[in-house]
Amino acid sequence: MFDNAAFSFPDITVDEMYFLKETVTGLSESQTRNFNMIYSGKRKKEQDMLLFSILGLLVVPGLQRFITGQIGMGILYFFTIGFCFIGSIVDLINYKKAALKYNKKVAFESYQIAKMGA
User: How many whole angstroms separate alpha carbon 54 and alpha carbon 91?
Assistant: First the structure.
């Protein structure tokens, strides 16, 4: 039931595509469409995470953490100026992993919503 065209998000990575393929296994066609609509609105592109990390380093410490829903870490980064810039630099280096981790979390939430919806 998995159709690669169903997950033609802009700038999707191979890892994300593989993960989505595993995630929608067992969903009906209508549930997969619902999953696709929910997930596409919530996912973060790697380029966006890179931008948020740069802004988190230079402008608003912890911005990248706030965007991914890590409010506590965002506040900690804000008041410690990104752990004296070290944490912000590490986040800048690991922006791809952060995007994939966030997208996996969103995919799980979207799966739960799509599964209940149909």
Answer: 9
CA 101, CA 30: separation in Å to the nearest integer? 26
- Contacts of 58 by beta carbon, 8 Å cutoff, 6+ apart: none
Q: What is the pLDDT of residues 78-117, one digit of tens each?
A: 999 999 999 999 999 999 999 999 999 999 999 999 998 7
2's tokens: 């998995």
CA atoms of 15 and 85, how far apart (whole Å): 29
Note the residue count of the chain.
118
Percent of residues in the chain assigned helix, strand, coil, to nearest 5? 75, 0, 25
Is residue 88 a contact partner of residue 56, using CB atoms and an 8 Å limit?
Answer: yes
> pTM score > 0.90 for this model?
no
Distance CA 116, CA 118 (A): 6
Nearest to 112 by CA among 8, 23, 2, 43: 23
What does the alpha-carbon distance between residue 15 and residue 93 come to, in Å, rounded to a whole number?
A: 18
